[in-house]
# Entry
Amino acid sequence: MIQSPTIQAPAIQPQKTPDVLIIGAGVFGLWAARHAISAGRNVLVVDRGQVGGGASGGFLGALMPHMPDRWNAKIQFQFEALASLPEAVAALEEDTGMDCDYRRCGRLMPIRAESSIAEIERRIVGARENWGERFRLERIAPPLADRAPENWLNEAKAPAGAQHDDLSARLDPRAYLAALKAFVEANGTLCEGVEVVRLDEGGAVLADGSAMDAGEIVVAAGWQSYELLQPWIGELASAPGGPIGRGVKGQAVLVEFAHGDDLPIVCSDGSYIVPHTGNRIAIGSTARDDWDQADAFDPRDMGFYDRALELVPALRDAPIVERWANVRPRNMLKGIGHEPFMGPVPGHDWLSARIGGYRIGLAVGHVEEALRR
Ligand SMILES: Cc1cc2nc3c(=O)[nH]c(=O)nc-3n(C[C@H](O)[C@H](O)[C@H](O)COP(=O)(O)OP(=O)(O)OC[C@H]3O[C@@H](n4cnc5c(N)ncnc54)[C@H](O)[C@@H]3O)c2cc1C
# Structure
């Protein structure tokens, strides 16, 4: 977690009612704060735990596009987010003097059978049409060693070659959060250890029973947003009368492996291998609906890691230096599906939400505009 002195609830006595109260200090809440501050507004961010205590505080940091062949508004939204992220990160780094470790490292995906090549060809055409000149998707025919870094992707797992794109990127989520936190602390107010238990019209009720008014409230509490928002946007649930979202637990490991930080992400079958600086490689991840404890790592649930070692056998001797688990939001909203929900809550002009997408949170948290439904 990003360490800082914890400010307890009684210490919150803002000089005046904040223009914007933001509930949750993950990537989505901190970016909401950065945008509101940049617009000249008085901002208070509260988090029940600490910055980095939620889904944003892991180490995977993969930023990967959806496939470009079946294009639609959601894929366009994510593409524009990915394409605009380097500029947003650079501006944040300039404002704070902190490095977020962003790199457009690209992504390799093994092609297991000749029969998949036609699909890859469609993706290549889709990328040319929808990604434009700046980014490229291609097929690397075997032998991979001619084009892909030697000993990185196991040739035996890629008998029909590999798909490579140069749009995928990675950043260090913790360094990113630390920079956002520094910006918000320097220009607004951030209070950790403060939980909101309920929303009232134009205000929030805290765990200590006190009430707080705000000009506008932004709910950015990750998967825990659903409980706060259900009374206000229940009618937007994909299934009438159903929940507006749920928390899906995931876990990942970080290994130590010497490399020159010129490797691409490898991904296949739900396993992601993401190179980071400092001779670290992140490997993820699982997805479980049935879970009890949000941040408890389950050593029995290591199928993703075993598959990763088959994809990249060079990692077999790499020691695990950290294990991490947390819960990501999975929206279940009409017209939004699992994509991020970012924008005003219909019928309540004091209330808006910014809730991460299931797989694409870190790549879109900086976007100011909502996905149009
Ligand atoms: C194992 C795993 C791997 C992942 N890998 C990737 C990846 O490689 N790339 C990617 O883009 N995305 C990835 N994701 C998804 C991504 O992490 C999320 O989409 C994103 O971090 C969500 O950010 P958030 O700000 O919405 O939520 P969070 O980061 O969870 O932040 C919510 C914050 O709200 C606070 N909070 C909750 N309730 C309250 C309350 N009542 N009052 C006050 N504060 C409250 C919490 O303490 C928390 O700090 C992964 C997720 C997991 C679990």
